[in-house]
Design the sequence.
């Protein structure tokens, strides 16, 4: 009978030790989980920030793909009433005379509006712009 009580006591002690070890493991795992969750939150925050920067960059790229304004010396040659990117109203398309180009600095062409679905890097040659080359 004494041996049975001893075994029972030993079993209870072993169980208590195992339970304590399990609690420690659980606490360690929970701490690791919290740490990983914080890291994940940090990465998600960084990713969101980078996404915003990329969207902002893409917006700027699509705006930058419209023709830039003419340099100032060409503006001075333009009549003030005519927008810089279009020929003066007195010269309809295709009727310019070769000897009278005072009103028309640019050749007569129209630039299509930037397509927001077209990535700007398609217009860059290899080595130009961000990343350079094929992605």
Sequence:
């Amino acid at each position: 009978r004494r041996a049975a009580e001893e075994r029972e006591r030993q079993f209870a002690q072993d169980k208590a030790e195992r339970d304590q070890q399990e609690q420690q493991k659980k606490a360690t795992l929970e701490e690791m989980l919290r740490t990983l969750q914080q890291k994940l939150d940090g990465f998600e925050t960084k990713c969101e920030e980078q996404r915003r920067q990329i969207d902002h960059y893409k917006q700027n790229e699509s705006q930058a793909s419209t023709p830039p304004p003419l340099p100032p010396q060409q503006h001075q040659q333009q009549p003030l009433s005519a927008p810089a990117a279009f020929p003066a109203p007195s010269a309809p398309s295709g009727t310019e005379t070769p000897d009278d180009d005072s009103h028309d600095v640019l050749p007569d062409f129209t630039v299509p509006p930037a397509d927001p679905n077209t990535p700007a890097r398609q217009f860059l040659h290899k080595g130009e712009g961000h990343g350079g080359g094929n992605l």
